[in-house]
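Appendix B, record 7
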Amino acid sequence: MSLRGYSFRLVKANQAADPENIGVQLGRYCITNDIPVTTIAQKLGVTRMTIYNWFTGVGMPSKDKVRKIEKLLTKYN
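Structure tokens (predicted):
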């Protein structure tokens, strides 16, 4: 797994977070596939900090954002 600018601390926090959380799933996908946080933040219309919070399970996306994340994950898969 490449870390593409992701800190070891962030990766560990993502791995320790609830895998059922869509934000955590997004984080795992981005980390594994070398997708920059900036790219995802721009596509979803949120800040990079918001994305980092989702990746670690600290924050939860709104229902609207969950739908967009599901579409993104489907598109990338």
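Remarks on this record: The chain is about 65% helix and 0% strand. Residues 8-76 form one domain.
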